[in-house]
């Protein structure tokens, strides 16, 4: 410091200037990096999208969804078809104010709240320059009205498409299933290349099971357009490859005859060819119209189906669990023979009540004073509970479970349909896991007559019966018989897994079969009064089952005096196969409200047999067996084969 004041610190000024210059340079460099990064991002990572957008100003890419494969029954009747239709599509990029446009468009073409909600969901699944479906299946009047006003709606157009159609409606709803619009969860899992332009996918049934075969391969068109996006010419076209056609084992006429036989009564029926596992009919009553779901079912229609007390959406044939009742007796009786616990001639005294040794609780037969002394054949024919109470106790729950599991009880059959349930084959382990409670001997006893915790689906029972009918050879039930690449293409048989042999002594099977013949033809048989064998050219072997929905609390016995009451508390079963000597069809029928299996369910099976006979060419029928004398539980059936 001096008299003239302080001299400026040049060194400090230079330092401050350098810092400011460095900061400015750093900011400029950062901005350059941001611009360069954005440039790299747009040119590298977003190149494909902006490339498509740029080309879209002149060239429009139209995805060509593949025609879905067709589905036919065993005789070539069309069960699932594709029919041409029109829809409204929107390109979001070309619409400035979407909500306002939708409001104005609704004045020209009716748009329901469901249409708009589904459209807005679809917007999240597509890119902004993709065509997004807004409204499917336009009527001719709606198309004309929009065509006149199209100039008001840039980005909105009418396009043709193929929509799924089910000619038989409710008759095959649970088997064929239906397709529906792809939702967000499905979109996330699908291959975007293979499903480009596709709006629908199989939701349930065979449509879902064989989606990979039915879908096909998409194509595309490059179309040159003008400033108004109107097409000028096609620059390139790669056609879509249609999906594979399916040919089923099921018979449409038998399906229809079975539904008619139910006369609207809730229940289910399954028919299987025991020689190979072909499913000939698979019916659930009531059902629903699958066409309602194809382009989006309305909330009103869907609520009506959900609220219906008869539950038409439930696939009773493979998801309905019912106590099997006495239908398990032939299988249990065969188990006693195969395990060496009984011989066909061994007898049991039925007095009307069975007691576990050392217990005072009684387990009743259906007849007040019992059936007297009966062997296996008589016990099956007359459905004598005492015989099977004692056999179940003798087997023990462990061996009973292991034997019945061989026939498929307690697990899915493996049919080529999604969502099959396995029912319940009760066991100590199952009860402990489900209820955390111990197993009691009385539960083993009632398991011997298909009561207690048992739950069986009609499909399971038909499969088990088919196994018994085919000499103990178990074939996996299946619906797909063959595939083809087109109408004129050769059919390729669909490979099925080999059968599994689960029984070993034909004499054991013969004894059980004789008892099942008695069910139909013996005057003491539980299906004799139904006369289902009368007039039929082949012998029918069967077994009735009447499963109680809840236990009896009085000493009253069931009689025909109050059928309405009995129908409200019983599940009525009947299973049968024919011809008895050369089985070609095995049927299981259940009615949710049936007084007796013999009187309620057996007539339905007879109508199914009649239709099978009508559908079977004479050249494919086995030799006719004529009954010389009516089989009785004490006298085997005599027969002659011409």
Report what the structure shows.
With 642 residues, this protein is α+β, with helices and mostly antiparallel strands. It folds into 2 domains: 61-219, Penicillin-binding protein 2a (Domain 2) (Alpha-Beta Complex); 252-288 and 315-484 and 506-640, DD-peptidase/beta-lactamase superfamily (Beta-lactamase, 3-Layer(aba) Sandwich). Helices cover 36% and strands 20% of the residues. It is elongated and about 125 Å long. Mean pLDDT is 88; it is low at 633-642.
Q: How many domains comprise the coordinates?
A: 2
How is the main sheet built? 7 strands, mixed
Rg result: 35 Å
CATH domain class of the largest domain: Alpha Beta
CATH level-4 homologous superfamily of the largest domain:
DD-peptidase/beta-lactamase superfamily
The CATH topology assignment of the largest domain is Beta-lactamase
Gross geometry = elongated
CATH architecture assignment of the largest domain: 3-Layer(aba) Sandwich
* Poorly predicted sequence stretches spanning 5 or more consecutive residues: 633-642
Overall structural class, as computed from helix and strand content, comes to alpha+beta
- Determine the N-to-C terminus distance: 141 Å
- Overall pLDDT: 88
Helix content: 25-40%
Number of helices: 22
**How many strand elements?**
25
Portion in strands:
15-25%
Which terms summarize this structure?
single chain; 642 residues; alpha+beta; Penicillin-binding protein 2a (Domain 2); Beta-lactamase; 2 domains; seven-stranded mixed β-sheet; five-stranded antiparallel β-sheet; 25 strands; elongated; disordered C terminus
């Amino acid at each position: 410091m001096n008299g003239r004041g302080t001299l400026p610190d040049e060194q400090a000024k230079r330092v401050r200037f350098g810092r400011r210059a460095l900061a400015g340079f750093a900011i400029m460099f950062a901005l350059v990096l941001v611009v360069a990064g954005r440039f790299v991002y747009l040119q590298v990572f977003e190149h494909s999208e902006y490339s498509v957008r740029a080309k879209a100003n002149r060239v429009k890419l139209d995805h060509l969804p593949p025609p879905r494969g067709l589905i036919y029954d065993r005789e070539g009747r069309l069960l699932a078809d594709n029919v041409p239709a029109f829809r409204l599509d929107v390109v979001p990029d070309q619409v400035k104010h979407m909500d306002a446009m939708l409001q104005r468009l609704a004045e020209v073409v009716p748009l329901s709240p469901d249409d708009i909600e589904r459209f807005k969901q679809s917007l999240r699944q597509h890119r902004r320059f993709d065509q997004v479906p807004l409204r499917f299946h336009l009527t001719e009047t709606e198309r004309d009205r929009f065509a006149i006003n199209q100039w008001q709606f840039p980005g909105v157009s009418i396009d043709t498409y193929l929509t799924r159609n089910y000619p038989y409606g409710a008759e095959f709803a649970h088997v064929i299933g239906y397709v529906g619009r792809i939702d967000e969860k499905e979109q996330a899992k699908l291959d975007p290349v293979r499903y480009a332009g596709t709006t629908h996918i199989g939701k349930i049934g065979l449509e879902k099971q064989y989606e990979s075969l039915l879908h096909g391969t998409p194509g595309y068109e490059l179309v040159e357009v003008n400033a108004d996006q109107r097409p000028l010419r096609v620059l390139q076209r790669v056609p879509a490859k249609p999906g594979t056609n399916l040919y089923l084992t099921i018979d449409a006429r038998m399906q229809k005859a079975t539904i008619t036989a139910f006369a609207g009564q809730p229940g289910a029926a399954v028919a299987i060819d025991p020689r190979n596992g072909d499913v000939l009919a698979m019916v659930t009553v009531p059902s629903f119209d699958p066409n309602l779901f194809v382009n989006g079912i309305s909330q009103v229609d869907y609520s009506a189906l959900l609220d219906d007390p008869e539950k038409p959406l439930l696939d009773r044939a493979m998801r309905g669990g019912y106590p099997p009742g006495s239908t398990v007796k032939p299988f249990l009786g065969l188990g006693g023979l195969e395990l060496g616990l009984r011989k066909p001639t061994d007898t049991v005294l039925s007095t009307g009540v069975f007691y576990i040794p050392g217990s005072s609780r009684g387990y009743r037969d259906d007849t007040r004073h019992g059936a007297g002394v009966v062997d296996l054949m008589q016990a099956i024919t007359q459905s004598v509970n005492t015989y099977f109470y004692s056999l179940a106790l003798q087997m023990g729950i462990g061996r009973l479970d292991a034997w019945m599991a061989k026939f498929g009880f307690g697990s899915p059959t493996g049919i080529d349909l999604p969502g099959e349930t396995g029912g319940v084959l009760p066991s100590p382990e199952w009860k402990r896991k489900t209820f955390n409670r111990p197993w009691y001997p009385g539960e083993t006893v009632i398991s011997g007559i298909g009561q207690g915790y048992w739950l069986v689906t009609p499909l399971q029972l038909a499969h088990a019966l088919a196994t018994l009918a085919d000499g103990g050879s178990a074939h996996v039930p299946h619906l797909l018989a063959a595939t083809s690449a087109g109408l004129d293409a050769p059919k390729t048989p669909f490979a099925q897994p080999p059968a599994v042999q689960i029984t070993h002594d034909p004499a054991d099977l013969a004894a059980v079969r004789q008892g099942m013949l008695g069910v139909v033809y013996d005057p003491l048989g539980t299906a004799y009064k139904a006369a289902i064998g009368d007039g039929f050219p082949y012998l029918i072997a069967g077994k009735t089952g009447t499963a109680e929905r809840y236990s009896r609390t009085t000493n009253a016995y069931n009689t025909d005096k109050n059928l309405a009451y009995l129908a409200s508390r019983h599940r009525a079963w009947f299973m049968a196969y024919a011809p008895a000597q050369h089985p070609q069809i095995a049927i299981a029928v259940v009615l949710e409200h049936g007084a007796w299996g013999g009187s309620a369910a057996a007539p339905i099976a007879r109508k199914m047999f009649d239709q099978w006979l009508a559908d079977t060419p004479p050249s494919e029928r086995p030799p006719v067996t004529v009954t010389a004398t009516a089989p009785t539980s004490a006298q085997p059936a005599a027969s002659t084969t011409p």
